[in-house]
Design goal:
three-stranded antiparallel β-sheet; about 210 residues; rod-shaped; alpha+beta
Length: about 210
C-alpha cells in the first residue's frame, strides 16, 4: 500500500485555536467536527490525486484510477489516510519514487510502431498475433545480441531488411512524476483550516 497519513498532526496543532471562545455545545462537538474536517480533506486529496493522474500519466486505465482510496476517520479515531491500493501501488510506486524495474523472468516488451490500446499498452494476444505473421521471428539479429525482440523480415535476398516490431529489454527506468505524497500534504495544509471551520458550523447546527 502506498499511503499518506497527513491530517492528524495538523488537526492537533490547530485544535487549541479552534477551542478558544467556543461555548459548551461547540466544545462537545469538536471531535465530531474534527472527523468531518478530516474526511472532507481526504476526499479532496483523492479527487486531486485522480486529476493529477489524468494529467501526468498517459491515459490511465479506470483500474489505475480506482486505486486511490480513503480510510475515513471517526469521532473516536481521528486519523485519516489516503492511499493507493496494493495492486496499483505495485507499479505506481515507481512513478512516485522513481527507480528501475527489472522483470523476474521474462523481458519487458516495448512496442515499436505497433498498435496499442488507448492506455498505451499492447492489446491482449498482440504478441501471438504478431508472431503468426509471415516472415516474423523472435530473437536477436546476428552480430547484435543485445537487440532482442520481435522482427519482421522485409524483402528477400541481400536487399532484405529487418523491421523491429517489439523490443525486449531487461530494465525500465522511471522518473518520479506522480507527486502523490507531496500533493496530498499540500492539499491538507491548504484546506484543513477552512474545512475545520465549516465542519464546526455543521456540527454545532446539528447538535441536540
Amino acid at each position: 500500500m502506498l499511503g499518506v497519513c497527513v491530517l492528524r498532526l495538523n488537526i492537533s496543532n490547530n485544535i487549541k485555536e479552534v477551542q478558544r471562545g467556543l461555548n459548551d455545545v461547540a466544545q462537545r462537538q469538536i471531535p465530531f467536527a474534527t472527523s468531518l474536517a478530516i474526511n472532507d480533506v481526504l476526499n479532496e486529496i483523492k479527487r486531486n490525486t485522480e486529476k493529477r493522474m489524468r494529467r501526468v500519466l498517459h491515459n490511465p486505465t479506470p483500474f489505475t484510477l480506482r486505486g486511490v482510496a480513503v480510510r475515513r476517520s471517526s469521532k473516536r479515531n481521528q486519523t485519516g489516510i489516503v492511499f493507493i491500493k496494493d495492486i496499483q501501488a505495485e507499479y505506481l510506486k515507481r512513478l512516485e519514487e522513481g527507480g528501475d524495474r527489472r522483470p523476474n523472468r521474462r523481458a519487458l516488451l516495448v512496442p515499436v510502431g505497433q498498435r496499442v490500446n488507448k492506455y498505451g499498452n499492447l492489446p491482449r494476444g498482440a504478441v501471438g498475433r504478431t508472431l503468426a505473421k509471415p516472415a516474423v521471428f523472435s530473437g536477436s539479429p546476428k552480430g547484435n545480441a543485445r537487440a532482442g525482440g520481435i522482427y519482421q523480415r522485409i524483402g528477400k535476398g541481400r536487399s532484405a531488411r529487418l523491421k523491429l516490431l517489439i523490443h525486449y529489454t531487461d530494465i525500465a527506468r522511471y522518473i518520479p512524476k506522480l507527486g502523490f505524497q507531496r500533493g496530498a500534504q499540500k492539499t491538507a495544509n491548504a484546506r484543513l483550516p477552512s474545512a475545520m471551520r465549516k465542519a464546526l458550523l455543521r456540527a454545532v447546527s446539528s447538535a441536540r
